[in-house]
Specification:
Oligomer: single chain
Shape: globular
InterPro entries: F-box_dom
Helix content: 25-40%
Organism: Agrocybe pediades
Protein name: F-box domain-containing protein
């Protein structure tokens, strides 16, 4: 009978035999999986500081046995995807050269944050092997340094293997002095490019054949809206569109007439994010009304609208365009969760999600103007508001005419209300019999225990009590009232007695989210 040591030796030998018995093709597949990194085509950025141990994993695998080492050293496709820039911080030149010698002509994934110590190494790879780069997702804070920018001139060369291009700097520039001087990018030859995303202004000269296969793209305010619309005609596969501007700068007027601009159709578009056009409602409206999309596609919508003072004479046109996109999102996503944020009189913020925690959502800000009632009424005409079950609302005293929207929310079951003007909300709920299916109310916000305006506080509490009692009296009682432990005035004295007399009501104490 073998002793423990002999049994251990047998186990090790058997394990080695099993490893060595695997065919090289399967081992190569394992190595590729171990060194994989998910590259999100649609994400605007990458988390450059997140740990990346893929290079260490490959190094460890090469030390398992001679067979693994031999196979790994011969697998240039594995080493080509391991050029995570931070992995080369404070490493010896010998190790850096060893890694690049193993790359050969394999497709390259160069990802991470460029520093002073890694810049010479990374730029030398880009300059010598640009035609092999498949993924470039890089942040270079010193890109506009007089000695650094010329080293990026390889961007003017053809990019036959490039699929993902993401380039950032730490600062956000939006002027002609800070623009990539290389044109045309990729010498107009990047046939495999799927994702082009950058925070850096760039020159766009049409036609640009590298647009043809894009799934995601960013444009900026140094491109005119007519130019952006013309470019979008050549992006039939586009799924994610980001347009950024500089809200602090007054735009350059391009005076495009309706007949002069392209009307691109984007049948696969899932995401539209526009920000920084607050100073130019004309451009924003032109973009929104000129792009058409297939029904049932839109999953993400973000629009920051212009200040009301700058809307005339474009306000009606702009509001119609925004309404079109809101309805397109709702038809595709059937939202169950709605946030209304009336933070001030000038803007109303709408957020919709399929579920409370969903990442895909709609964020739209509406500017108050003389047509706001009509805008809210038109938005509320979507039948998809019947799907909304949860409403979170923050209200300050304002002129926003929200009644048409309230009327459309017939199937709300859970209401979270906060803000100093929730008294007006409960007044409307009582007077107009809003939210007939409401079961749960969660009252949040420090204003409810603020003694600085005791009259407002008592009036708010009284109005909430009136609503709860009314719903019970008509046979449609509220089941749950959620309160923070700090809101003792709701359950003290006369209020406590009134609450106890409401049949079917459960009062719960809950910490604010």
């Amino acid at each position: 009978m073998p002793n423990a040591r002999n049994a251990s030796d047998v186990t090790i030998k058997e394990s080695r035999c099993i490893v060595e018995a695997l065919p090289p093709e399967l081992l190569w597949k394992i190595f590729m999986i171990n060194t994989e990194r998910y590259i999100p085509y649609k994400a605007f950025g990458l988390h450059f500081n997140e740990p990346d141990s893929r290079l260490d994993t490959a190094r460890s695998c090469s030390q398992v046995c001679r067979l693994w080492r031999k196979l790994l050293l011969q697998s240039s496709s594995v080493w080509g995807r391991l050029l995570h820039i931070q992995s080369f911080e404070n490493t010896a030149d010998e190790w850096r050269e060893a890694v690049i010698s193993r790359v050969g002509d394999a497709p390259l994934w160069i990802i991470g944050r460029v520093s002073i110590s890694t810049r010479p190494y990374i730029l030398s790879i880009l300059q010598s092997k640009w035609e092999s780069v498949q993924v470039l997702a890089v942040k270079d804070r010193d890109l506009y340094d007089g000695q650094v920018l010329p080293a990026w001139s390889f961007l003017e060369r053809e990019a036959p293997a490039l699929e993902v291009f993401k380039l950032w700097i730490d600062s956000f520039y939006m002027d002609a002095q800070h623009i990539l001087p290389f044109s045309p990018l990729f010498r107009n030859a990047a046939p495999r490019l799927k994702s082009f995303m950058t925070s850096i202004p760039f020159q766009l000269t049409l036609p640009a054949p590298w647009l043809a296969n894009l799934h995601s793209v960013t444009f900026n305010r140094l491109q005119s809206v007519p130019t952006i619309l013309s470019a979008l005609k050549f992006t039939p596969h586009l799924e994610h569109l980001y347009i950024s501007g500089d809200a602090t700068q007054h735009p350059i007027r391009h005076h495009a007439q309706d007949g002069d601009v392209s009307k691109p159709h984007l049948p696969l578009l899932e995401s539209l994010i526009i920000n920084g056009l607050e100073r130019n409602p004309e451009d924003l409206g032109l973009l929104l009304e000129s792009i058409s999309l297939a029904p049932g596609q839109l999953r993400r919508l973000c629009i920051s609208q212009a200040d009301a003072i700058s809307l005339e004479p474009y306000q009606q046109r702009l509001q119609r365009s925004i309404t079109k996109w809101i309805h397109a999102y709702m038809e595709a996503s059937s939202p169950h969760y709605l946030i209304l944020w009336g933070h001030n009189e000038s803007h109303l913020y709408l957020t919709m999600r399929p579920t409370q925690d969903a990442e895909e959502q709609m964020d739209v800000s509406l500017a108050f103007d003389s047509h706001s009632y009509l805008t809210i009424k038109n938005i509320a005409q979507s039948s998809q508001f019947r799907a909304v079950e949860t409403l979170y609302i923050f209200l300050r005293p304002s002129r926003w005419p929200l009644r048409p929207l309230y009327d459309a929310l017939q199937f709300i079951t859970h209401l979270t209300a906060c803000g100093p003007d929730i008294r007006a909300l409960f007044h409307d709920m009582l007077q107009f019999s809003l939210f007939p299916h409401l079961c749960t109310i969660n009252l949040q916000g420090g204003h409810l225990q603020d003694d600085s305006d005791s009259e407002l506080l008592e009036s708010t509490i009284s109005k909430v009590m009136d609503f709860l009692e009314h719903r019970a009296s008509i046979g449609s009682p509220i089941s749950v009232l959620e309160l923070s432990p700090a809101r003792v005035k709701f359950v003290s004295g006369m209020n406590e007695e009134r609450l106890e007399r409401i049949p079917g009501l459960t009062v719960m104490f809950k910490e604010d989210d």
